[in-house]
Amino acid sequence: MDVSVGVLTVSDTCSTGEAEDTSGPELKALVEQKLGKVWESKCVPDNIQDIRSVLVSWADTRSVDVILTTGGTGFAPRDVTPEATRSVIDKEAPGLVHAMLAGSLKVTPLAALSRPAAGIRGKTIIVNFPGSKKAVKECFGFVQPVLVHAVDLLKGRKASVKSTHNQLQGLTFPVHACPHHSTSSGGNQTELGGVAGRPRESPYPMISVQEAQEIVLNHCKALLSQEEKVPCLGTECLEFSSTVGRILVEDVLAKDPLPPFPASIKDGYAVIAKDGAGVRDVRGESSAGRDPDMPALSSGEIVRINTGAPVPDGADAVVMVENTKLIQANSEGEEVKVEILVAPVPGLDIRPVGSDIYEGERVMSAGNLIGPGEVGVLAAVGATQIKVAKLPRVALLSTGNEIQPPGEILKPGHVRDSNKTTLKALLQENGFPVIDAGIAKDNLATLTEHVRGALQQADLLVTTGGVSMGDRDLLRQVLVTDFAAEIHFARVNMKPGKPTTFATCVLDGRKKLILGLPGNPVSATVTCHLYVLPACRTLAGQPRPLPGVVRAKLQCPVPVRLDPRPEYQRVWLRFEKDNSVGVAVATGNQISSRVTSVARANGLIILPGKSEQRQEIPKDCQEEFDVLLTGNIVQ
Questions:
Q1: What does the DSSP 8-state code read for residue 196?
Q2: Which residues contact 581 (CB under 8 A, 6 or more apart)?
C-alpha cells in the first residue's frame, strides 16, 4: 500500500503537554498496519487557524494522500475541528461521515453527539475522527475499507480503479455506489432502458433543513476572500447614499467633532451664568447656521439663540424662553430688555464640542450592515466614499417545456413563469441584483447551454424545476455529466421543498454554487427564504444570514393534519397588544402549487412532522410554534 497519511491530533491540553496524546499514536499504528505510511504527524491546540494551517500545508505542500484528524469534533465550545476542515475543503464527502456515524451509533447512542467532517482538498482526502482512543479505532475501521479506492480515484490510477470495479462486479449484492458509476435498483430495471429504467426512488439521503443550510452556508463562506477585515467576494467604493444594505469593510472615523462648536439645546437666551437672574440687555441673535465667530458676550448682556445654534464666546449657559420675561421692545418689535427668571448654572442646555462625536472617533466598524441610520451617520461625519463588500452575482434560470414568459398569450399546455418573477422580486427586495438566465426546455443540450451561460456570469445559479423524479427532471444529470459538479444534497426533510438540490462545480477556474429549487411556485418561494437568501447574505459578507424567528400560536378553527415531514406553512402573523407571542393565521390552501398562499404571507410557521403520538394539531390549539419572518409585521 503506497498511501501517504498525515495524522493530526487536535487538543489544547495535549499540545501543551498537560495531557498525554493516546489517540494520535493509536491512529498512526492503525495506518501503518492497514492503510499505508504515516508521513506527517503533529499536535495542535483547538484553534481554527492552527488546524487550517496544518491541513492546507499538508495537502498543498506535502501532497499527502489522506489526512486523519483526531479530537475537537464534539459539542464543547472549543471543539472546532469540523469548522476548520470545512473551511479548507473543495468538496465534502458525506458518505464517509455517514459510514462513521452509522457504525458508531450501533456501538453507543453517544455517537450522535459527534460532528465529524470529511472532504477533499485538491488530491487529498481529509477525515475527522473523535478524540478518544476507542472511538478512533472504531471509526478508522468503518472508513478504512474504502480509503485506498478513494485515493486511487483522486489520483487517477485507472488500473487500480478498474481492478476494484471488476472484483465488485462479481458480487451478488450492491455494495458499490460511487458517483462515477451508475447503478439501478429493483427487479429487472437494470435490463431496461428509457423511461422504464429510470430510478424509482432517490439515491440521495434525506437530511434536515438545518443540515442543508449548514452545507450551503459553509460552501458560501469558502468562496470569501480573507484579505479584508470582513470576509467577502471583493470590495468596491460607492457614494455613501448608495450603500444601504451593504456591508462595510473598513472602519469609518470622524473627520470633525460633532457638534463642531458649543451648540444650544433649547430655544432661549445665551447668558453668563455668574450674572444670575435679573434684567439683561438683548444684544442680538444667534440662529442655526450662522457663523459662530461673533463678538464675545459681556456681563449684563444676553443673546437670543435657537436650538442648534452656536453659543457665542463669553456665554456659558442657555436659559430657555419659558424661564424669561419680556421687559422692553423697540418700535420694530425687537427685544431690548429681557428678565432672566431662573438663575442658570454653567453648562446649562449646551452641547459641548464633540459631545456627540469626537474628532477621530470610530463611528462605524468593519462588518456593520449599512441602513438608513448608518447613512445619516456617514453624512454627519463627511464620509462620502465608502468601501463595501461586493454583492454576489445571482442568475435565475427557469426550466420546463411548459414554461413561458408572463407577457405572452398563454399557449395550450403552458403556464406563465411566476417563479422567476417572485424570486427576482425577493432578491431585489433584499438588495441583490439578478441576472435573468432565461427559460430552458427539458432537453439535455438546451439545459446544458443555459446552465453554462448562467454559470459564466454568476457566482450563484438558482434554478427552478427539473429536480424531482420525473423522466424530464434533468438538472442533476447535466450538472454531474457536463460540469463535473458535486451534488451535496438532493433531498431535504421538509414540506414543501423536499427535492431541493445543492451542488458545486468549477468553471473556468472558479468555484460556482448551484441551488436547484422545486418547480412548484410555493416550494420555490419557501426554499428561496430558507437557502437562496441566506446564501446571498453570506456571500455579501453578512454575518447573520438566516431569517428571524419569533414564537406564535396557530389560529386553527379546524384540526390541522400533520405531514410526515416538518411543514413550513404560509401564515399572516400579527401581534396583539401587550403580548409577546404572535398569532399566525394560515393564508389558505397549503398545497405547493397554490401561489396565492404566498402572496398574503409574512411568515412561515414550522409544524412538526407526524408521529405515532401526534397525528394532528387540534382545533383552537394554544401551543406555540416557531415562525420564520418573511415580511413586515404591521399592526
A1: G
A2: 551, 552, 553, 624
Residue that has been written with the C-alpha cell 451509533 in this structure: 105
C-alpha cell at position 623 = 401551543
Alpha carbon distance 424, 527 (integer Å):
14
The Cα 251–Cα 366 span in angstroms is 5
DSSP string, 224-249: SBSSSSS-BS-EEEEEGGG-TTPBB-
What is the H or E stretch that residue 421 is in? helix 418-429
**For residues 28 and 38, is the Cβ–Cβ distance under 8 A?**
yes
The three grid cell numbers given for residue 401, joined into one nine-digit string: 417545456
Q: Which residues pair with 237 in a beta bridge?
A: 387
- Banded pLDDT at 571 (limits 50, 70, 90): very high
Cell of 193: 432502458
DSSP codes of every residue in 54-96: HHHIIIIII--SEEEEES--SSSTT--HHHHHHTT-SEE-HHH
Phi-psi region of 311 (alpha: psi -120 to 50; beta: other; left: phi over 0): beta
Residues near 434 by beta carbon (within 8 Å), at least 6 away in sequence: 394, 395, 396, 423, 424, 427, 428
What pLDDT, on a 0 to 100 scale, did the predictor assign at position 618?
Answer: 93
Query: What distance in Å separates the CA atoms of residue 134 and residue 127, rounded to the nearest whole number?
Result: 17
The string of pLDDT tens digits covering residues 464-485 is: 998 886 656 789 989 988 999 9
Distance CA 334, CA 41 (A): 89
Q: Report the distance separating Cα 580 and Cα 539, nearest Å.
A: 33
SS3 (DSSP) at 32? helix
569 neighbors 586 (Cβ within 8 angstroms): yes
Residue reference for cell 415580511: 631
pLDDT in tens, 388-442: 999 999 999 999 999 999 999 999 999 999 999 999 999 999 999 999 999 999 9
pLDDT tens digits for range 257-288: 999 999 999 999 999 999 999 999 999 887 76
**Which residues neighbour 95 within 8 Å (Cβ) at sequence distance 6 or greater?**
none
- Tell me the CB-side half-sphere exposure of residue 348, using CA atoms within 13 A: 20
Contacts of 18 (CB under 8 A, 6+ apart): none
Q: Where are the alpha helices (DSSP H) in 276-401?
A: 372-381
124 exposure class (CB count in 10 Å sphere: 0-12, 13-18, 19+): buried
Determine the angle formed by the axes of helices 133-155 and 94-105, rounding to 10 degrees.
150
Q: Are 157 and 2 in contact (CB under 8 A)?
A: no
Nearest to 354 by CA among 275, 256, 222, 272: 256
Closest-CA residue to 282 (of 291, 271, 274, 273): 271
Neighbours of 617 (CB within 10 A): 18
Pairing of strands 486-489, 549-555: unpaired
Compute the distance between CA of residue 120 and CA of residue 88 in angstroms, rounded to an integer: 9
HSE of 227, CA atoms in CB hemisphere, 13 A: 6
Which helix (H) or strand (E) is 386 found in, with range? strand 385-389
The cell for 538 is: 453570506
Encode burial over 419-455: b for 16+ CB neighbours within 10 A, e otherwise: bbebbbebbeeeebebbebbbbebeeebbbebbebbb
Alpha helices of 330-400 — where are they, by DSSP H?
372-381
